[in-house]
Amino acid sequence: MKKALLFASVITLLVGFQMLTGRASSHREAPLISQDPMADNTDLYAFRSPDRPDTVTIVANYIPLESPAGGPNFPAFDDTVLYEINVDNDGDAREDLTYQFRFHTETRNPETFLYNTGPISSLDDPNWNRPQTYTVTRVEHGPGKSERSTVLGADLPTPPDNIGPRSTPNYNALAAAAVRNLPGGLRVFAGQRDDPFFVDLGSIFDLAGLRPFNPFHLIPLPAEAGRDAVAKYNTHSIAIQVPIAQLVQAPRTNIGIYASASRQQVRILRKDGASDDGGPFLQVSRLGEPLINEVVIPLGLKDRWNRTDPEDDGQFERLYSAPEVSRLENLLYGSVLQPVTVTGRTDLVAILLTGVQGLNFTGPEKADLLRLNTAVAPTAPVGGGDRLGVLAGDLAGFPNGRRLEDDIVDIDLRAFAEGYGPFLNGLLGLPNKAPNNQLGDGVDANDKPFLVQFPYVAAPHQGYEVP
Amino acid sequence: MTTSSRTSRLAALRWVAVTIVAATAAAVAPHVISRAKPSPNAEALSIGPAVGMPGAPGTSTSGLLQRIDEMEARLRAQPDDTGAAVLLADALLRQARATNDGRPAGRASELLNAALKEHPGQYDVLRMLGAIYLSQHRFREALEIARRSRDLRPDDAWNYGVMGDAQVELGEYSDAFDAFDKMMALRPNAAAYARVAYARELQGDVDGALAAMQRAAKATAPNDPEAQAWYAAQTGELYLKLHRLDDADREFRRAVFLFPNYPLAVIGQGKVRVARDDREGALAIYLDQLKRTPTLDLAARIGDLYAMRGDAAASERYFQLAEDLAGPGAVQTEANLALYLADHDRKLSDAVAIAETVVATRHDIFTEDALAWAYYKAGRLTDAYEASQRALRTGTRDEALLARAARIRAADARGSSRNR
By C-alpha distance, which of A351, A333, A331, A296 is closest to A439? Predict the structure, then answer.
């Protein structure tokens, strides 16, 4: 009787259910997902370290918009991704030095799927079930395709994600313990951090709105202060501090840098049936100058652009010399801005593809690299530089490398609108149209103060505090 | 405002809407200022992050519902919002997989076809429609759509995934594997690794399949528990094939931890219990799951377990349910009903007829295997042998399929009814 009832209830439940024959054993439903956040560069920073001015600090961030309360699967670097920071120091747009980062996640107790089973009070705390370590390798690229690899550090610890006061008390101590010195005066850190980027995405996504300029938009609204859409989000940082002498090729002082993520290609047919999973790595994401992938490269080209090495960027030059952003500025803010030149923008080509003569020029090769003149001394402790960088006469800031505090969005908006400001107008004769030189999204600083010491990027927001 | 200035202003706004709103689009990156430039071949619409990706809700049960509600609301406000239609279809596809219910995919298909009527050749709609057709077992259509989509954007790895998936189901393995290799060459990622895993499994390389599937699991975004559960469940299935029951059980439990009640994983847990001779445990799991996802496969498994227990009445009830679930009148897109009937010595002539109907549309090894088994049970040994040989052509090591092939080969040799 009971069974009959159960059966009847099953049948009742069937009403309205559209069966998919054979779904239960089907392989054909494999996920089709193009996006790949663990292999996605979000930002790259490079600056002379104010507290160790004989070194350069490079910070490469990966994994966008991590929600601090993102359990039970807390974000981590991907063990199957090759993370790289590449440095060109002879001006040919090809990397001469590469710092490679490979991660390894240990599962201490395979019988639990929890991230931690108690408070994590140290980096080797057995309560932490998924500790991640990494190896740093320096690759020196010689003539032809020759390479010399040196492992600089192995089994280096990363801190856990910042979960809450029960799981990760004393978070700053955990993170500090993950800062490691390597032979040769290098210092490294890899792990979760506050996303140092700041931008009013909410308004920009709303037909490229800039809240302070709301009244002048094609669809006017009352002016408002900007709102940082990246506030309260985390990311994963790889930070490395390297003595300048190891980065440059004297007497040159200028270097070009890009970060990348690569995934291994795996063939269907294996040669020996056992170990043919070691196919070549293909670059799936790269980042030199900020916002290029977002602002300059159109959607249909993004995959190809990401696969391309900077040395082959000449093919994308027209996207810089006739930028869509500049056209949009005319269209949307034409009522207030001085008309912006939308073709032949050699100024943008210079700043973004070769470096600026007399400042950070690396050579005539057009390549998307973050260019840093290491001869320019730091002008302030981390976080204290002028947010407008070179536009405001602070030569230690963007586009001479990039500091955490540099307001990339405002600088780019002004540069694309030919509002370079009086300093660059006087120095290089770049146009200083007004009020184009006032453009901005109204978000001028990060939501968290930066650290004055390596790795400088602020501690991640805690899941418990930021649900 | 004069009419003409109003018109030009609206025209300008429309252009902005197409280009920038779009920019909201591919927003994989956390800070997008830009717009998408229409490619010369396809009206490119960037449509924002997919569910489970940064900036979008996760793919948990509640995250999927949230995303579906948000996109339905956008569509109500603006029925012409193709971006919302594509994102909604994407979330519905996930929901269909997580619930084993075909209705969400049906709704997605309607949405996208309506969008295509308004915007013929719209790229993002086309590429998503291919994936939806796969889910609906409309493999020929999926292949055709994916080819059109590929022609518009030869660099988009997604299209090769849809093409290969469709070709695998149609039994066009060589083309399918070429498509998967192309997909991998363009963009190695979890989706590509999973397809390599299946291609290896089809060719009998279960260890290699396991390695690739584990790589896919590792390469999956933290905010995407639905995909993670899928990879974990598939990893569990591969462990089952390798008779590593503890490992299989752990992966199925992991999948259920990541996505509660994930059908593939719950059923997998039942399979582990059957393999451990814990039939009562398996029965309890299957009966519970049948309430959530009533399928032929589940009802048949339950009937088998009752039969083993000696409860003929209960067994027959579930066997009948299995038949009812598969029809009547339902278009058979695969031969699992035929296989079930043949396996249970029920309606053998129907089994042959169904399998022959299906094999007229596709030649994958599982359809050929079902056809072979139906022929065998119907006493058509020559036909059975030939179909069985076709089922073996990829070198699969699927044990049930191999066992049937061995029976057919032995019977064929004994009867020597085949002309040699």
Answer: A333
Query: Cα-Cα-Cα-Cα dihedral of B269, B105, A36, B172, to 10°?
Result: 80
**Quick check: B318 and B300 in contact, CB under 8 A?**
yes
Q: How far is CA A245 from the centre of its chain?
A: 25
Residues in chain B closer than 8 A to A25 (CB atoms): 297, 336
Distance (Å, rounded) from C-alpha B414 to C-alpha B420?
A: 13
Q: Which residue of chain B has the CA closest to A70?
A: B223
Is B204 in the A-facing interface, judged by CB distances under 8 Å?
no
Mean model confidence pLDDT for chain B: 87
Give the chain B residue whose CA is nearest to the CA of A203. B33
User: Which helix (H) or strand (E) covers residue B72, if one does?
Assistant: helix B61-77
The nearest alpha carbon in chain B to A33 belongs to: B191
Q: How far apart are CA A201 and CA A224, in angstroms?
A: 14
Give me the helix-helix angle, B82-99 and B61-77, nearest 10°: 150
**Residue from A2, A6, A10, A23 whose CB has the most chain B CBs within 10 Å, to mutate:** A23
Q: Is the pLDDT of residue B43 over 70?
A: no
* Contact between residue A26 and residue A214 where contact means Cβ atoms under 8 Å apart: no
pTM, entire model: 0.91
The C-alpha atoms of residue A183 and residue B64 are separated, in whole angstroms, by 49
Backbone angles phi, psi at B210, to 5 degrees: -60, -45
Asked whether the bond before A455 is cis by omega within 30 degrees of 0, the reply is yes
Pick from B10, B13, B28, B31 the residue to mutate for testing the A interface (most A CBs within 10 Å). B31
Residue in the block written with tokens 């030009």: B8
B 138-197 residues inside an 8 A Cβ radius of A: 153, 155-158, 161-162, 165, 168-169, 177, 180-181, 184-196
Cβ-defined contact of A24 to B295 (cutoff 8 Å): yes
At A192 the three-state DSSP class reads strand
Structural contact between residues B405 and B392, judged by C-beta atoms closer than 8 angstroms = yes
CB A93 within 8 A of CB A256: yes
Q: Are strands A234-243 and A52-66 parallel, antiparallel or unpaired?
A: antiparallel
Among B1, B28, B241, B297, most A C-beta atoms within 10 A, so best to mutate, is B28
Contact between residue A403 and residue A424 where contact means Cβ atoms under 8 Å apart: no
Domain limits of chain A?
Answer: 37-266+274-438
Q: Does B359 touch chain A (CB under 8 A)?
A: no
Q: Which domains does chain B have, with CATH numbers?
A: 345-420 (1.25.40)
Compute the CA torsion angle A292, A298, A303, A304 (nearest 10 deg): -90
Q: Which residues of B touch A325 (CB under 8 A)?
A: 33-35
Q: Is A33 exposed, middle or buried (0-12, 13-18, 19+ CB in 10 A)?
A: buried
For residue range B269-284, what is the model confidence (pLDDT) as tens digits? Answer: 999 999 999 999 999 9
pLDDT digits (tens, 9 = 90+) for B213-227: 999 999 999 999 999
